[in-house]
Amino acid sequence: MKHGMRMSKVEPISPDYPLILASSSPRRKRLLRQAGIPFRAKPSRTSEDSPIVEPEAMVHHLAEKKAMAACRRNGGLWVLGRTPW
Fold first, then answer.
1. Strand pairing report for 19-21 and 39-41
2. Cα 69 to Cα 85: distance, rounded to the nearest angstrom
3. What tens digit of pLDDT does each residue of 9-37 get?
4. What is this structure's pTM?
5. How many angstroms separate the first and last alpha carbons of the chain?
6. Strands in the chain per DSSP E
7. Which residues on adjacent β-strands are paired with residue 20?
8. What is the dihedral of CA 45, 48, 51, 52, to 10 degrees?
9. Which residues, at least 6 apart from 3, have a Cβ–Cβ distance to it below 8 Å?
C-alpha cells in the first residue's frame, strides 16, 4: 500500500471500466485507440511545484504525484501516467 491508498478490487479495462489516461497527449490517445483500449482522457490539474531540484528526480516525482491524484479522483479504475522518457 503506497501513499495511504487502500487496495480494492479493480475491474478489468472495458467500456464500462475504461483506462484513465492522465494526459492530454494526442499521440497517447491515438495509440490507445489503435490498440482498441477503452479509455477516457482526464489530464491532471495537479500543481507542478516540487521540493526536489534534481531534474530527473523531479520529473519522476511529478509524474507519480499526478498519477496518484488521478487515482484518487478515479478510484477503482486503471490509470495510465508516464514520465517523458
1. parallel
2. 21
3. 778 999 999 999 988 889 999 999 999 99
4. 0.72
5. 26
6. 19-21, 39-41, 79-80
7. 40, 79
8. 120
9. 68
